[in-house]
Amino acid sequence: MKRRVWQWFFFTVLVCSLALASLFLFEDSVADYFFELLGSWRDLCAHITPDEWQVQGNIFLGLVWIFTGVLAYSMIFGLCCVILLAFAQELFMRLAGKKPHKAK
Known about the structure:
Blueprint: H1 2-25, H2 27-37, H3 39-48, H4 59-95
Helix pairs in contact: 1-2, 1-4, 2-3
């Protein structure tokens, strides 16, 4: 279990850092895709955030929305990767004729 948590943490950090690096390095071309991918996250943040804070030019709030959206999606993607790797490991062990790993 501890190994799976570390794998999840690793994939989350990897995906989040790559996504944020691509956002900052290739801002012009990647920003449009991020706004499309994070559309549902922006809607959720807009419903949670008070209307007084959502003024034109509140750059810090927009950056927080983008960063938390990237982090949340990275965590979900990392969890999916760990689950798929666990299933693949069990499948390959069964195909190799070894007994599946027992949880302790």
